[in-house]
Write a structure and sequence with these properties.
Keywords: Signal. By secondary structure, the chain is an alpha+beta fold. The chain has 20 helices and 12 strands. It has helices at residues 3-12, 21-36, 43-55, 118-127, 135-140, 183-187, 211-233, 244-252, 262-269, 284-291, 298-301, 305-308, 310-324, 328-341, 349-369, 373-383, 390-401, 406-417, 447-455, 458-462; strands spanning 57-58, 68-75, 82-91, 101-106, 150-154, 157-161, 165-172, 175-182, 196-202, 421-422, 427-432, 435-440. Strand 6 (157-161) and strand 7 form a beta hairpin.
Length: 465
């Protein structure tokens, strides 16, 4: 499902700059749409939309957990725009799914033969609070979608991506403004050929007095809070992948020489229940054995990812178990091994990079817990060069600075930048205060770009004052 998105991510972050990629793309979309709409029936609505969008703030996760109704203006390269009702909906994880799905969709036809959308659209544009009285709204608010968009974080902003569209969302005065565009067009770097959708959702339309929606909201919030507590109590990055261990190991013990390893067979037989964050700590002994297995290279040649990643998944899970137990020295050992000796193998470079970046971020946190500040600085400096964590890394390193001497830190960073070196298989290294920092980066880096990515940050510039 996410192959198109993965390809897009690799292209999207082909270069980094002070101005966020999200904002740069949004500005490009605005220019394209305003040019299209010069002689359009909805040009005033489009102009008004971007005035509000540019004044709005990036949406927070707390505003993604409710259903909303609104409108969608669809714009095209050589056709006039179209106006539709729109629905934003969210599906929380169920027992058999670990993922929340977020959907933005124009409702392109009447919900029923007796319900016409024209009154709804007219009232929404004039005064959106009035649409709650229309028959169309009473049905629209229960519309759901079979699309499965996922929330991702880019440039420290939440975005929604499904198989076809990427959506940027902002919020202002209890209205959500969203721009959506084709991933295919973005992949080909030709947004001018993309269908572009502009959404406006009113957070106040689905009333708290609506009993059915209240029940739905309460149910969703309970699930959200439950999963949030579980994530904090039982950290596990590979919450989904970890259960692939069972299938992979069962396949493995069917082949020689693993079929004659009685200890392995015994440990695999212990995995009777689905592996998840709430029970994985009970299998630490088994995971330690799996982490030490020597996996034949034939599985990598056959692209059998789950089997190839047995070592990595076991090690990363052991690291998360150790973090949950506050056993930070053990966590460090497992994280470093999962990062450098058994990095995640995936045909998707994005998946591998996100995993490596998460390990490096956790290492920075672990070193702070161990009061080894130099290594924490080192991994946060490395992450400033990443596609996924550079905003978080800059925020973390600014907080870590505390009362440290800025002049000394700047001199030490400048010295470290000169030690940068490229290693095989997308690994890089540098030395900070005598500590060698090894990290993985999917983008091509050299000493110049590594240095510039760090010295152009507001954090580094603050050290000069």
């Amino acid at each position: 499902m996410m192959k198109t998105i993965i390809t897009f991510f690799l292209l999207l972050f082909a270069a980094q700059s002070v101005l966020s990629q999200v904002d740069k793309i949004a500005k490009e979309v605005e220019s394209i749409v305003l040019l299209r709409s010069q002689n359009d029936d909805h040009k005033n609505h489009i102009k008004n939309f971007f005035e509000h969008y540019n004044q709005a703030k990036p949406i927070g996760s707390e505003d993604l957990i409710r259903d909303y109704t609104g409108i969608c203006i669809e714009t095209f390269p050589e056709k006039k725009s179209l106006l539709f009702p729109a629905k934003y909906s969210v599906d929380f994880p169920s027992e058999d799914s670990r993922t929340s799905y977020f959907n933005l969709n124009p409702v392109e036809t009447s919900i029923s033969k007796n319900e016409n959308s024209s009154e709804y659209l007219k009232l929404f544009l004039e005064n959106s609070s009035k649409v709650s009285k229309t028959d169309y709204f009473l049905s629209l608010k229960y519309v759901d979608s079979d699309k499965k968009g996922k929330a991702e974080r880019m440039d420290n902003q939440l975005v929604i991506a499904d198989d076809d569209f990427l959506s940027f969302l902002k919020i202002k005065d209890q209205k959500i403004y969203g721009i959506s565009f084709s991933l295919t067009a973005l992949k080909s770097k030709n947004l001018t050929e993309s269908e572009i959708r502009l959404y406006i959702f009113d957070q106040n339309l689905i009333s708290a007095d609506d009993y059915m929606m209240i029940q739905l909201e309460n149910s969703r919030k309970k699930k959200y809070n439950k999963t949030k507590v579980q994530r904090e109590t039982y950290p596990l990055y590979h919450d989904y992948r970890v259960d692939e261990l069972r299938t992979a190991l069962r396949d493995l013990i069917g082949d020689a020489p693993y079929s004659s390893d009685q200890i392995l067979i015994k440990y695999v037989s212990n995995l009777k229940n689905k592996l998840e964050r709430t029970n994985i700590a009970g299998y630490a002994e088994e995971l330690s054995y799996f982490a030490a297995l020597k996996i034949d290279k034939k599985y990598k040649e056959g692209n059998e990812e789950a089997i190839v990643n047995i070592n990595h998944t076991a090690l990363h899970s052991l690291a998360d178990i150790s973090i949950g137990k506050k056993e930070y020295q053990q966590a460090e050992k497992y994280l470093l091994k999962a990062l450098t000796e058994f990095p995640l193998y995936s045909l998707s470079g994005t998946t591998s990079e996100k995993d490596a970046n998460r390990i490096e971020y956790d290492l920075a946190k672990v070193y702070q817990k161990l009061e080894r500040k130099d290594e924490a600085y080192g991994y946060l400096l490395a992450l400033i060069n990443s596609q996924w964590y550079y905003s978080s890394a800059e925020k973390e390193i600014t907080a870590l600075l505390g009362n440290d001497d800025k002049n000394t830190l700047k001199k030490d960073i400048d010295k470290a930048l000169k030690t940068f070196n490229v290693r095989p298989n997308y690994f890089q290294e540098f030395t900070f205060r005598g500590k060698k920092i090894v990290f993985w980066n999917g983008l091509p880096l050299d000493k110049k770009s590594f240095s510039e990515n760090i010295t152009e940050t507001e954090f580094y510039k603050s050290l000069k004052s």
